[in-house]
């Protein structure tokens, strides 16, 4: 074994050579001993480096032995389950509906469309909420991230509340004759319940479509890791035998193992430009304008290889983020867990919509305080009016008017209620902003 550190042998120069200091003649070179590493040692070092890289990405979970088409077939039950649950929820308003009352299909479609548009608006405002909470990306911390989540939820529920006000519904049930004041009664037979339910159906439908689409996109990130035959061990053993059998295959494939997770990344044979004999004329011509096309053709394999490596790194980073959020790779999550998540999303949507609408309708009725000379269901009516001069002035104001047998009427009770809710929401947001970004 050569000594270490290596001894550099300085050749003796003749007087003629000392005059041409810095010139290198053909056939003369400086020789010094170099430590050579075997192929096995280099492969072990590369494996250690790649394992450290995988551990830095957080890839530490075993994937299930299943093929990608089989996985998609198993998850096909997810949209079927969601459609079945939505069909059951759509039949609920007809259970308590009066036999004589029929809701027009145009009214149902209008309420469903309003819920769909409201969900899209709330989803679109998530990114601006994150930008504002993090001060345009300058302070991205756990506190600002939590603040952005809180702000997004407040915006979403505010839009839900305002959309319920845009429906123009009110409690139509008759009050109790023994009650001294008018007491609003909430009943599933009320037409307001049906309209709010269809609004929640539109919100839930678009939410389910988005959730199922995201589930399939997350599964597609692991398509290259899932084997077609569902037995990854056999394929990896075959690849390992090929690599041990032929040295050239070591340059084409590279197997990486990190805590049970294995993936094979293929390297291009044309990763580097082909070697060409040194020709001074060609070197001079390489910088000429006419040879720009040749240079681009030579650099194209390297650029494609770099693009593939960057895409691979981004894919690994996305997988690592998903596993950090879910605690396991998405293919390892059972299908019934995903179905429970979709059911939980539906129940949360309908529950929040009914709770907010109940609070809104009760507060709306109490602020109006109409008198009841004759308590009958047909005397109480509520409708929204849009004034033309306010629309031209870019101030849209929805007014509520209660008329009972020519009795008292109270205009603008909905406006006062929404204005008070907006003022309280702004106060809460201001205090949360001061706590999250005290230096701003």
TrEMBL record:
Q: Where are the transmembrane segments?
A: 72-96
UniProt feature, compositional bias: Acidic residues: 230-240
- Record's keyword terms, sorted: Membrane, Transmembrane, Transmembrane helix
What ranges does the record give for the region Disordered, renumbered to this chain?
A: 230-256, 270-292
Biased-composition ranges, Basic and acidic residues, are 241-256
What's this protein's name? Uncharacterized protein
The organism is Hydnum rufescens UP504
């Amino acid at each position: 074994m050569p000594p270490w550190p290596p001894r550099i042998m300085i050749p003796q120069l003749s007087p003629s050579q000392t005059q041409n200091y810095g010139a290198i003649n053909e056939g003369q070179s400086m020789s010094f001993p170099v430590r050579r590493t075997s192929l096995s040692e280099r492969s072990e070092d590369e494996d250690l480096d790649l394992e450290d890289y995988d551990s830095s990405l957080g890839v530490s979970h075993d994937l299930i032995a299943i093929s990608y088409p089989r996985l998609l077939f198993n998850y096909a039950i997810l949209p079927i389950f969601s459609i079945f649950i939505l069909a059951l929820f759509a039949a609920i308003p007809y259970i308590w509906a009066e036999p004589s009352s029929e809701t027009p299909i145009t009214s149902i479609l209008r309420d469903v469309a309003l819920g769909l548009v409201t969900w899209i608006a709330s989803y679109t405002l998530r990114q601006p909420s994150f930008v504002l909470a993090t001060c345009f990306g300058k302070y991205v911390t756990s506190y600002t991230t939590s603040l952005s989540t809180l702000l997004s939820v407040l915006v979403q529920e505010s839009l839900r509340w305002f959309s319920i006000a845009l429906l123009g519904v009110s409690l139509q049930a008759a009050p109790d004759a023994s009650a001294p004041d008018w007491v609003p009664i909430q009943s599933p037979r009320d037409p307001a319940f049906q309209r709010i339910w269809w609004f929640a159906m539109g919100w839930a439908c678009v939410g389910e479509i988005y959730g199922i689409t995201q589930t399939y996109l997350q599964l597609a990130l692991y398509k290259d890791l899932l084997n077609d035959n569902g037995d990854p061990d056999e394929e990896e053993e075959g690849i390992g035998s090929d690599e041990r059998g032929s040295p050239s295959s070591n340059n084409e494939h590279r197997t990486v193992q990190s805590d049970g997770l294995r993936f094979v990344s293929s390297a291009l044979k044309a990763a580097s430009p082909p070697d060409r004999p040194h020709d001074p004329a060609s070197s001079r011509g390489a910088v000429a304008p006419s040879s720009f096309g040749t240079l681009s053709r030579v650099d194209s394999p390297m650029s494609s290889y770099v693009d593939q490596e960057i895409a691979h790194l981004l894919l690994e980073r996305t997988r690592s983020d998903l596993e950090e959020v879910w605690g396991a790779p998405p293919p390892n999550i059972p299908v019934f867990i995903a179905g429970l998540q979709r059911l939980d999303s539906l129940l949360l949507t309908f529950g929040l919509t009914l709770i907010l609408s109940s609070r809104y309708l009760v507060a709306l009725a109490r602020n109006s305080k109409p008198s009841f000379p004759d308590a009958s269901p047909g005397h109480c009516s509520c409708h929204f009016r849009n004034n033309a001069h306010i629309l031209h002035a870019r101030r849209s104001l929805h007014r509520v008017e209660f008329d009972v047998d020519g009795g008292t009427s109270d205009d603008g009770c909905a406006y006062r209620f929404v204005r008070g809710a907006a003022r309280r929401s702004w106060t809460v947001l201001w205090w949360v902003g001061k706590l999250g970004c005290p230096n701003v």
